[in-house]
Amino acid sequence: MSTSSRLLSRRSFGRLAAGIAGAAGTGALGACSPSAGKPSASAPLRIMAINHVWSQAIKRRTKEFEERIGRRVSLTLLTADQLTSSYNVKLNASGTDVDVMMVRALQDQLLFAHNDWLADLTDRVEGDSEFAWTDFQKAPREVSLTAGKVLSVPVVTERPTLYYRKDLVQDAGGPPRTLDALMSTALELTRRKRGFYGYVGRGQRNGAVSQWSSFLYSHGGDFVIDGKSGIGSPQALAAYEYYGNLLGKAGPPGATNMSLEQAMPIFAQGKAAFYIDADAIYSNFLDPKIASRTVRDTVGFAPFPAGPTGARPHNIASWSLGINKFSLLRDDAWQFIKWAAGPEMSAALQADGIPGARTSVWANSKTLRSFPPDLAEAMRLNAKRGLGYDRPRVLQVGRARDIVGRPLVAGILGESVRPVVRDADAEFADFLLRDNRHKES
């Protein structure tokens, strides 16, 4: 399962996004027709989406939607890289051959808004009482806005979950509830010579940033504070040092090369006691094709542990739906979003084990039955406590993650983190100035 996959203050984010206010949209969705011509009745509604369990489930149900609107649906499933490349090619050319776009609000939306590629959905979502926009969780709903306009609708959410071995912590009273307890227990259980590790997690420079974010928030830090770099703060330094020690001393060799794809199998094969990653991947540890018998029998799920300022995990909209600004079928595209992200479909998909973005589906016991009970409770608590972003909210997200991730690598390698943090903080501060200038150009 793909996981993609946090919160500036409203005031600071308003400053960050102010430069793209004019580019984020030009009024109500149906108020303008940016491309000449009218599509025929036989023209399909074209949807481009990530090859994800959510979009696979929707694809199996498209006949129902086709009968509803009387138009054929063409749904193309791609990898994340293929999706990004396709958007760049099609939308740079003002292409009309994509109508509904599956996007990562945290990775893509600011840039897409800057390029004026996304239609403004504000009037649609707020003016449709059946759609119930306020039913969406606060954090995913807020990240759907850019410069005060709703540019996407969240459909899949994820949070970090503490995966652990029940058999290894039963004498300690259960899983660690604090980061201090996680550190001490992970170090105690580590047996490097036997190839067993107290903790495994992402350590790759860019890819680790999203998971490290929850450690940063729970230490009282943030990526950006009052519009300026926050990664040089004492709180961020403590989070860098903590994560470096945890993975460097209790983790497997080669951790700095590990993304989700490398870290997850180590826990799945019973070679680690603890693992923190997206809750969306939980089924891997129940799958006999992936997980060992020991892990399938003993895996437990717990909320993100509390740090010095409490438990502050991320709770993100990992994938959302938007409408191509150049689409000639914007009304039908909205009908698709209304159907695919509506209360009824959201409940049906969550009942099948796909985490949704609506408050109502998390409050309904029937929609949570497909999840293990301890996982459902962990997800509920993490959603309640969570911040709506897991990376810096900037135009050039990839470059920002590279900068922020550099001290993580130093810490894991056992190097002194403080000078690397100092250099990265200066680089990130300069980056934010340049990113803002680019945004306003």
Automatic annotation (TrEMBL):
Domain of life where this protein originates: Bacteria
InterPro entries reported in the protein's UniProt record: Bact_solute-bd_prot1, SBP, TAT_signal
One Pfam family linked to the record: SBP_bac_1
Keywords: Signal
Signal peptide range: 1-23
PANTHER family assigned: ARABINOSE-BINDING PROTEIN-RELATED (PTHR43649), DIACETYLCHITOBIOSE BINDING PROTEIN DASA (PTHR43649:SF12)
Protein's name in the database: Sugar ABC transporter substrate-binding protein
